[in-house]
Automatic annotation (TrEMBL):
This is DUF4926 domain-containing protein. InterPro entries: DUF4926 (IPR032568). It comes from Chamaesiphon polymorphus CCALA 037. It comes from the Bacteria.
Amino acid sequence: MEIELYQEVALTRDLPEYGLRAGDIAVLVDFVPHPSNGEEGCVIEVFNALGESIATIAVPISVVEVLRSDEILAVRSLAKAT
């Protein structure tokens, strides 16, 4: 399935510098071309359980994937960056 703008996506790997883990949910808000023809990137916005924005970051497109019907959402405390 193709990823579209404003679609909810899941992280495919941990991003400890932001306190985020694989499986966390974000919203894809923009696509970013690589300046030297490398992997395309995207800008994602991450929200807490109350819907408050906690991070907006640029990541490689391979760091996100579309949500699937066989997945369920869960809640966890935000990890502290180390």
